[in-house]
Hints:
By secondary structure, this protein is mainly alpha-helical. It has helices at 10-51, 91-127; strands at 54-61, 64-69. The chain has a two-stranded antiparallel ribbon.
Amino acid sequence: MTAQETPRGPSVAQEERAEVRHKEVARIDKWSIGWLLLTLALWGLLAFLLLASYGPEVEAYPGVKEGMCKGPLLARFPRPDDCLGDQWRQWPALLGVAALAVISTVVAAATTVYAKVLSRLTHQAQARP
């Protein structure tokens, strides 16, 4: 007696394998969504660090207060010495965050493509008799 000729019959074994495949597709799809959310958070953090003003608030216009230091992409060079103390706004840290964002983007894209391909293969396997 072979593995497919079990007392349960071949259709029950095929249904069990299809169920396992569906669970695998759902698990990989959840991972791809998680990587995508992490990627969006990292790119958002990078944009915030590059563009947002920071430091002690000063009155720019009457009644309008803003941070004394502009974001690294908006600041003119040389920046005031008071702005050089924030290590997260220096280029080495910003490039590190950018590298993490790029790596997570590649992983998110790869897991998303893998989840879609696995889903299609599962549906094709079910369609075959």
